[in-house]
Amino acid sequence: MSQQVITPELCEWITEQTAAGHSAESILGAMLGSGWDESIARLALARTLGQSATLTPPPGATPGLPEPELTRFAPVVDAGDRQVKVLMALRQPRVVLFGDVLSNEECDEVMALAGKRLARSETVATGGDGSEVNAARTSDGMFFERCETELIRRVETRIATLLRWPLDHGEGLQVLRYRPGAEYQPHYDYFEPSHVSTPNILKRGGQRVGTLVIYLNTPTAGGSTIFPDIGLDVAPVKGNAVFFSYDRPHPSTQTLHGGAPVIEGEKWVATKWLRQGVFT
Ligand SMILES: O=C(O)CCC(=O)C(=O)O
Ligand SMILES: [Fe+2]
């Protein structure tokens, strides 16, 4: 085949095959047998059925999802070196609000370490003098290396224990600072299956399957973490953290979320993204 194009007819055929009970792998086999290029065939399947259908988990992938031990719904969860409070839990989508994940001193230390290295996040407003911010993400950000300092290692070990997900499946901690007016418009944290850069990103540990956003300070007003699909607003409170997980890279997970504009004061968060496998 010379020109291989993903047409609506092809997507419809894939849907029919699935409805007839064929697995994504067997549809892929049939497509390869009739001359389709493997990467285009996988892309067509991902677009039609969602990426998880054809996603080969990366080496060392952990089955299931990150999930705290909440079966007894005790008021605290043992996170190894700290008792973390459970303030609220939603089952569908999975959203858990924790209290006291970090001490005040730990929050201050992470902000001080990160503050020296903050750079304007890539999606900035064009034009103007920067005093008016309006792009999708108008915070300043930086990444720590995993286990970069003793403090970062301690925090990451605590997160791994709390969410029962291996430390090496986590990306380096990201710190964001929002000034008044800054926001992070609603988005999904998983990598969009049909995006051209996604296959390469997935080589380093597979998809993201969970997010923990830790509040490093308490803004005076605004800056809540919003989940528009489920009408949930989480107030940013120093030391608290909101966790959510998603088992497939699809809007049906209802994990659309964002950082509402900060109205007064600053808002600092540290985000830990969790991957299916070892993040390298
Ligand atoms: O700032 C927030 O409340 C949300 C941050 C966020 O969505 C992210 O870091 O992916
Ligand atoms: Fe996010």
From TrEMBL:
InterPro entries listed in its UniProt record: Oxoglu/Fe-dep_dioxygenase_dom, P4HA-like, Pro_4_hyd_alph, Pro_4_hyd_alph_FE2OG_OXY
Source organism (scientific name): Pelomonas baiyunensis
UniProt domain Fe2OG dioxygenase: residue ranges: 169-276
Keywords carried by this UniProt record: Dioxygenase, Iron, Metal-binding, Oxidoreductase, Vitamin C
UniProt entry tagged with the keyword Oxidoreductase: yes
Keyword Transferase: no
PROSITE patterns (alphabetical): FE2OG_OXY
Cofactor entry: L-ascorbate
Protein name, as recorded: 2OG-Fe(II) oxygenase
Pfam family, one: 2OG-FeII_Oxy_3
